[in-house]
Amino acid sequence: MTDLPRLDRREFLATSAVAAGLSLTGSSNAAENGGAAAPTLQIHPRYHRWHVDAGKEWLETNTGQAHLDWTIPVSQAALVLVDVWSDHYLQDTAARADEIIKERFVPLLAGCRKAGLPIIHAPSPPQAIGHANHAKLAEPGSVPGPRDSWPPAPFRSKAGPYQSYRRPAEPREPEIRQVRDGLTIHPLVEPVGSEPVVATGDELHAVCREKGILFLLYAGFNTNACILVRDYGTLAMSQRGYEVILLRDCTTGMESPDSRPTMAQTNGAILFLEMFGQYSTTSDDVLAGLS
Question: Where is each Isochorismatase-like domain found (predicted)?
Fold first, then answer.
């Protein structure tokens, strides 16, 4: 992945759309296309407002959620589907994802396709590279350069004198590998027509540049893993300069025994994005905004 500038928290917030007070309401979205206004998407992105109202004490408990009112040209937005796999080795995670796919993804994809909103599939490199719709795009200079010599290679691989720092081998890891080896894109989410499939952040960026896409609507799994940290995920693409909006009803995370009752990992990942420069909305908001 191309090196991206590192921003400290203050710089990041200063350059985010929240800090800048970005609002697209009333922006130039009525470009002429054969005498008719270009189709638009009207959505209400949610974010965490760090500021407090006048007269309120500066306390965390006095901060809260706020919504914006955006009108976006459909041609400048895309729905990015992250790791929407046919299975998962954790049965309850798989069950939650399957329910979301059936109840949320199916109508969402139908509505986006009908409205002409581009859909981009990012199912992880092994699934993408083997797909007939693999975009096979790369930016000039996107090949990573030689790795820095620090930390030393033996430390990174936990070899030699660093073997004692390895995580213990899991005896059931072969079972997980067997599931992973058989993963495909979920059959209800298979690409239609020429919808591109990307394997890397560079490929997603190249598709967006080619199509003039600026706004990325994210749906997929897992909220606290791939949605956040893939090189085509929310944080990396936000750092590239795109506006990122997660569809919070179209995702679920991998929970622990402690977090499962409240879905704390899923909700925490959504809140993290809303707190630090990104947004969330729902599939219902998108479908209503396309109609």
Answer: 78-258
